Amino acid sequence: MHGGIASATSRKRAAAIVISPILCREYEGEACQLEPKLQFKAERAIVRPEADDAVSCICLDHGLQKSAVACIVKSCSLSDSLHTKNATMTACGAPVRNKSRQYYNMSIVLGVVAVCLVLVRLAFKQFWSSRRALGPDDKIILLTVVLRISGTVLNVKGLADHGLGKDVWTMSVSELSTFVMWLYIMEVLYLAELSLLKLSLSAFYLCVFPGIAIRRLLWGVCITNVLFGLVFVTVAIFQCSPIHYWWTQYGEEPGEGHCININAMGWSNATISVLIDILMIAIPLSQIPKLQLHWRKRIGVVIMFLTGAFVTVVSILRLRSLVGFANSNNPTWDQWEVAYWSTIEVNIGMICTCLPSLRLLLLRLFPGLLGNTIASGSGQDVSYAHGSRGQTVLGSEASIQGHGNELADVEPKKGSDWQSNMTKSNHVLVKSEDRRRLGTLLGK
């Protein structure tokens, strides 16, 4: 907080505001008392407003300010508390803070980039990939895009335009209640988008990695993501009873109601989300050593998967912003950081899910840019060729170490030539499917 009180009258006014709840128009209950030491400081500033330490006694004493706020909030209505705090800050010459434009710009820029990249991904999959069809992961991300467009609009029109990034005492009670309502809606949207992003990435891994063991693990991750989303979205919707008490408690007539421990919910969601992120980074990285790839392609694939770690870093940074999430006396200012990192997390997550498809698109547009070969078992480069129908044909067999037995080896019965031939045919078909999945990741 900055000093700069204009006059002795301003000092006296600031001190009077700080030490007493008499400005409340509808004062109820017993008068609250400051600690004796703080009471003495405030009274001294009133008696000797010309003293050099009057400003430090009131405006620069954070302990006095904090105690006064708690005292006034306890004794006054919300409207009078905001009025009193506003008068105090004005008397102290405090600057008017506003970070809403920064949030506004970030939300629009990242939202547009994320949505455009997803649309490019979907167009590539539908019209230019070898399959010419959307996979389960694409359909899930399409639903996420719908929510993200809605979320971006609400970020701008709901949060930024209704006080996010401003001090709460510069707003009216009705404005504060409206802001909290939009914050509630955005919280539910955020949890839904986050769960869909994780589910989309899990579905993509299911299309890429053929091993039985790894697929069982991935199915478990998919189920976990579904449960993760359903549980926390449901809890977020019904965190207060009645639901509208979440924002009406900040109105002139809050009414009756109660809420769960919102801090506990926020921290548990964020912690579980980070753990799932770490698992979903470790799963693909654990499979890279099993693929016989040229070292350049191996590095490229590792880098592509490690970009997902950036989302985890953002999630951890968001954890820091959750300190005192539901216990703030200045929610429109303090929730700015939570909303800021949550918006970055969702948008960057959408961008990261598009990286494999964007890599394939770049391979199509610039074949020599990223390289278009897979190392064979002998270490030689094996190039892809494209058939008349756009299908990808591998020049020679690409092996996947450790997956051959569990995927393709079927023991034929002795003395049965037709069964032996059928087994060989199945082996070739399974290997072809393995190559198709591998091609999905590496460039087909």
From TrEMBL:
Residues 128-362 form the Rhodopsin domain. It is found in: Membrane. One of its GO terms (cellular component) is membrane. The chain crosses the membrane at residues 103-124, 196-214, 226-247, 267-287, 299-319, 339-362. Keywords: Membrane, Transmembrane, Transmembrane helix. InterPro entries: Rhodopsin_dom_fungi, SAT4-like. It is a multi-pass membrane protein. Its main location: membrane. PANTHER family: EXTRACELLULAR MEMBRANE PROTEIN CFEM DOMAIN-CONTAINING PROTEIN-RELATED, PTH11-LIKE INTEGRAL MEMBRANE PROTEIN (AFU_ORTHOLOGUE AFUA_5G11245). Belongs to the SAT4 family. This is Rhodopsin domain-containing protein. It comes from Beauveria asiatica.
